[in-house]
Amino acid sequence: MDDWQRELGPEDFEDDNVSSDDNSSKGGKKAKLPLVHPIMYAETPRETGFHRSTRVCLELIREALLHQRWQEAAEYMACYPQMLEDPNSGKGQDYKELIWRISTEILHHHPNSKLEDYNNIYERMKHSGVRHYLMICLEHSFHLMLNGHIQDAKRQLSAAESWRYGKESAAQNQKTKLIHAYKSLLDYIIWCDKKFTHSNDTEYADSADNQEMHNYFRQASVNLKEILKNPGVWDPFLLSYIEMLEFYEDHEEALKVLNDYAYDSSFPPNPNAHVYLYQYLKRNDASERKLMKVLKVLHVLVPSHELMLEYSSLLLQSEKKSDKQKALGVVLEMLDFACWRSNLDAWRLLKTNIQKLQLQEDWRDVISEKMAERKGWWPALHFTSFHASKDSQENPELKEVKASLTKLLCPDLTLKYTAGPVTSGERT
């Protein structure tokens, strides 16, 4: 479950008459996407007039798509599905996949496409090949969801939940889990609508709708809790579940879920997991020690993350001498990345760090140690005359803060980043 592209990617495009037992014996080898299948475009020695016309039709569709002539592509596409009627074609699943993908692509871009057109295509393709049924249902529900038809999207996923075809393969089981997960996400969306009504209607709390809202919570939480047990990146599902748990003040369960998501070694490394845990702890007034523990792990994963400003500030408030030195290292590592080069808050925090360190006798040694490996490239990254001129024009306050730090950070170097204004002729 940790590879979304694999979960939602194409599977073996075998003929519908092949049983799932036969499918499992083939070792699960993946076929290439049908759009790049050369046989569909190439003339064959035994090509009939029917095959020739469908091949030329596909070539014309491809040409129209490449040049974004959507109306022309739609007209040709209306004829191409006759390929499915060919009893001699051994690539039935390939053609079904092709028709499904091209048809929806045309509808996405056609200026006159309507929801009914999408529904017709999805319903037709769902029943033309059972191997694609689950994924077409899921895609159909996405489209309905994006267009605000939440209940219709949920009905699509409910039908997919109960769908079975022979003995389910491992791939079908994985897709079924996704169906459960997204159906729960729809329950969460409906729950949010009920909650909004609840918060804006003083009589709502005493009505039967209040119980209905709680029912949607129970329906959503069952599958969301289950899906979060599978290793993977489940950020939208996690956030939905946590929001509902917080609303019902089940903080014990919320904290357990967040900790498992962040620290379970079977899950892939996910910086967002630690961000969500930190934000939850901060919302619930956790101790600074707990907050720093979470940010410490995030610092290892993403030293340039914006929360490192908060991590450095928390370390700076500590009474430990080592924490103050660590706070300096955290903000310096942020400034190692060009994305923070012109950030005033980061440079102000660096200045504050140095001012705090100056209360220690060995502050010069601490700074020298931190800057030893940076002397060769930091001046070119931050302290050239070009930077001085640019900062003077765009952010004079930043220029002032940086200029006050040059001698402290690089005392034995002559830098071209000066405190005064720099003319264009002095740029390097």
State the main characteristics.
mainly alpha; 22 helices; disordered N terminus; disordered C terminus
Provide an overview of this structure.
The chain is mostly helical and 428 residues long. It has 22 helices and no strands. It is extended, with a radius of gyration of 30 Å. The two termini are 52 Å apart.
Topology:
Layout: H1 4-8, H2 20-24, H3 49-66, H4 70-77, H5 92-109, H6 115-126, H7 133-146, H8 150-161, H9 170-200, H10 208-227, H11 235-247, H12 251-263, H13 271-283, H14 288-301, H15 308-317, H16 321-335, H17 344-357, H18 363-371, H19 378-382, H20 385-394, H21 396-403, H22 406-409
Helix pairs in contact: 3-4, 4-5, 5-6, 6-7, 7-8, 7-9, 8-9, 9-10, 9-11, 10-11, 11-12, 12-13, 13-14, 14-15, 15-16, 15-17, 16-17, 17-21, 20-21
Question: What is this structure, in a nutshell?
Answer:
With 428 residues, the protein is an all-alpha fold. The protein is built from 22 helices and no strands.
Share of helical residues: 55-70%
Could you name the ranges where pLDDT drops below 50 across 5 or more consecutive residues?
1-41, 421-428
Return the structural class: mainly alpha
The N- to C-terminal Cα distance equals: 52 Å
Proportion in β-strands: under 5%
Rg from Cα: 30 Å
* Average pLDDT level: 82
Sheet bearing the most strands, described?
none
